[in-house]
Amino acid sequence: MRRITKVHVLPGYRLELTFDDGISGTVDLSALVGKGVFALWRDRGAFESVQIGHSGELAWGDQVDLCPDSLYLRATGKKPEDVFPALRHEPAHA
């Protein structure tokens, strides 16, 4: 499991993230703004209050949190099986 070590708020509901393996990338969360629990982000100040939680996730108080693994995939463009080799399907031989 990846952990976020740094977060920097960018214009347009984007975040620059740095992960515990040193990889950095940008995620665009604008498509989530105003939907469900993300209604909180209609207030730009609320979005900018992002913190890194104790498990390396992004958190907005106790209202919203985002999984660091999911954000890692978005930021790097990698597929789940690239990050989690156990997900690779190995053909069975009879």
Give the topology, please.
Layout: E1 4-10, E2 14-19, E3 24-28, H1 44-48, E4 51-52, E5 58-60, E6 64-66, H2 68-76, H3 80-83
Antiparallel strand pairs: 1-2, 2-3, 4-5, 5-6
Describe this structure in words.
The protein has 94 residues and is α+β, with helices and mostly antiparallel strands. The protein has one domain (4-87): NE0471 N-terminal domain-like (2-Layer Sandwich). The protein has helices at 44-48, 68-76, 80-83; strands at residues 4-10, 14-19, 24-28, 51-52, 58-60, 64-66. The strands form two sheets. Strands 1-2-3 form a three-stranded antiparallel β-sheet, with helices on one face. A three-stranded antiparallel β-sheet has the order 4-5-6. It is elongated.
Key terms for this structure?
single chain; 3 helices; three-stranded antiparallel β-sheet; 19% helix; 94 residues; NE0471 N-terminal domain-like; alpha+beta
In short:
It contains 3 helices and 6 strands. With 94 residues, it is an alpha+beta fold.
